[in-house]
Specification:
Pfam families: Protoglobin. InterPro entries: Globin-like_sf, Globin-sensor_dom, Globin/Proto, Protoglobin. This is Protoglobin domain-containing protein. This protein has 195 residues and is mostly helical. Helices cover 57% and strands 0% of the residues. The protein has a single domain, classed as Globins (Globin-like, Orthogonal Bundle), CATH 1.10.490. The chain is built from ten helices and no strands. Helix 2 crosses helix 5 and helix 2 crosses helix 10. The longest helix has 22 residues. Bound molecules: protoporphyrin IX containing FE.
């Protein structure tokens, strides 16, 4: 039986426009963040360890957002009412993103969906896919600041597979580098001429 489709998840949609970031740009960014084949291998292992813990990871992240009104505001109406349906739909795509970060090849299709995720944080596409009546734009400063909590909070989950401290550290470093790399890619539509 096929897994149920995730609402608004269009990674494999053939109509997805190509990213303005080229494969060559990506290679340079990977080199800049020291992301290499060992990190790819560590992420594959992380994917196996995190599989089965995705809902618990999302509970931590949603708990973090929900306990900070200035962050919850981006999942809320302009008057500040959280939109449950929007939170739920984004949550299922967020869960898939954890899997994709660990298991997908970082190829041109991945780059194209990276650009789509970036745009969904900006006025160009935020709210559109879920028809949400929310505020129009998430400031870049919060995207960058999120690299830390999204990285630090994953660490305890990486220890659940019974791997050595050294292997857990390798998984953590690979995850941290990947999140840094992705937020760099997502900064493109925010700072086109400065990118
Ligand atoms: C959407 C990850 C920063 C609010 C998403 C999605 C992912 C994601 C995976 C779903 C993408 C898809 O549609 O498939 C991240 C990561 C961040 C980050 C890894 C930084 C490291 C933030 C911040 C906020 C935020 C700081 C504000 C509190 C949202 C909202 C959506 C979203 C509201 C839904 C956008 C839409 O209308 O489609 N994010 N995010 N994100 N994120 Fe983020």
């Amino acid at each position: 039986m096929n897994a149920p489709a995730i609402p608004g998840y269009t990674h494999d949609d053939s109509a997805l426009p190509a990213s303005p970031v080229t494969a060559e740009d990506l290679e340079k960014l990977k080199a800049t963040v020291l992301f290499g084949p060992d990190d790819e291998a560590a992420l594959r292992t992380a994917g196996e360890v995190l599989n089965g813990q995705i809902e618990q990871v999302l509970d931590v992240w949603y708990g973090f957002v929900g306990s900070h009104p200035h962050l919850l505001a981006y999942f809320s109406t302009p008057s500040g009412e959280p939109i449950t349906d929007y939170l739920d739909r984004v949550r299922s795509r967020f869960g898939q993103w954890i899997v994709d970060t660990c298991t997908r090849p970082y190829d041109e299709r991945w780059l194209a969906y990276q650009q789509e995720i970036a745009l969904r944080h900006t006025a160009e596409k935020k709210n559109k896919i879920d028809r949400a009546d929310s505020v129009p734009h998430i400031p870049l400063r919060y995207l960058i600041a999120f690299v830390y909590p999204i990285s630090a909070t994953i660490r305890p989950f990486l220890t659940a597979g019974g791997h050595s401290d050294e292997q857990v550290e390798a998984m953590f470093q690979a995850w941290f580098k990947s999140v840094t790399l992705q937020v760099r890619l997502w900064s493109q539509p925010y700072a086109k001429s400065a990118w």
